[in-house]
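ENTRY TYPE: paired fold submission
RECORD: A
CONTENT: sequence, then structure tokens
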Amino acid sequence: MAVMEAIVLNSIEYKDSSKILNLYTENGHKSVIAHGVKKLNSKNRFLSQNCTIISLNISDKKLPSLGEGELVNEFPNIKKDIYKYSYMSHILELVKNTISDESDHLKMYSFLKRLLQLVDNGFSADTASFIFELKLLHFLGYGLNFRMCNVCGKTENLEFHISSGGLTCREHLDENIHTYGSDVYLVLKALYYLDINKPITLEIDKTSKIIVRHIIDVLFDEFISFNTKSMKIIKQIEKY
């Protein structure tokens, strides 16, 4: 039996009373069969909830079974708030569907765990999602340039151009392509470089959040080509 800590990304109904849990760990993705967890008297019932950190024993089979386990953090404040839960579900969907086996899982697991803790303790769920998504682009190899013009390296009179994934000076801008000035790209830059292990003082107004959401959506359409089901719910809640 192997012991590990894991974040429950989602679960799939399996037979009458069981589930297959899709987990994320310091070693990457793992799926386990949780036998009987749909039964009200199951001792492992609480381990099968999405957006929960658990410690578990699993068998060494190709599709292992969940043995004994314990709850590490159930993030109660996230679970009782549909707004927070939808954003965190969006993040967990991204983890499930975009992070490959070859990734630096130790780094991502630590980051994801810290982000969930922050949101459960009151940090803005939408801002947390912005931070995650922008850093995920870098993690997946689509780093953004907020330092200089992509063409000539100038550091003045810059605009953010979505398709190029960075800044372009006005001399090299195509006047037919929409860009964003410093009032927007400085917010993106702050989110992109923010260290969530240090005190966070960043505040973003509602108008800027709408613009940032649009930019991130376009970036993901162009570079990742994956949209989550949770984001559809979020947009209904936010009325984007």
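RECORD: B
CONTENT: sequence, then structure tokens
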Amino acid sequence: MKIFKKSLSHELINSAGAAFLILIGIVIAQRAGNLIRLASKGILPNDAIVTMLGFSLVKFLPMILSLAIFLAVLMTLTRWHRDSEMAVWFSSGLGLNKWINPILVFALPVIAVILVLSLWVMPWATQKVEDYRVQLKSRDELATISPGVFKESNNGERVYYVESYDELGNVVKNVFVQSMQHQKIGVIVASEG
């Protein structure tokens, strides 16, 4: 009986690990694509992508872990039926109720982690995301300019364009600024600034 339980636990852990990695990859790809889209439109600064991605992963972690447990049990049970390992399990005198105990031993620690993530870590991460967004909005609008993208100011009175930054990021090259003051349009062009 120990051999069966050890084999079941080993397969559950392997299946859960594989499902977890695949689901994390999907979430990272989807969230990163969305954040890069926002950064390319100038809604989100480029230096905020990694931070926002990290907070998104923390928010989705309970759901990913829940899906990983479910998929691990489903894939293991399916494979054991397909490969006739359940027939061996039943023919050795072990019932289906003996199959539940190793699954609970596997799932309960992960369920405890999901509980902690859901009750404490996820609300903290959600609050930090909101605080970070407020901080990003209060930043100087010049800090959100991306090279090669026209950026309109928050009040709509200015349009900025910067072709590139120098190696250190302190000097901008080929600057264009159009501003509206007293119902008159002014244009500033400089090779660097």
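NOTES ON RECORD B: The CA atoms of residues 70 and 157 lie 53 Å apart. The two ends are 75 Å apart (CA to CA).
STATUS: closed
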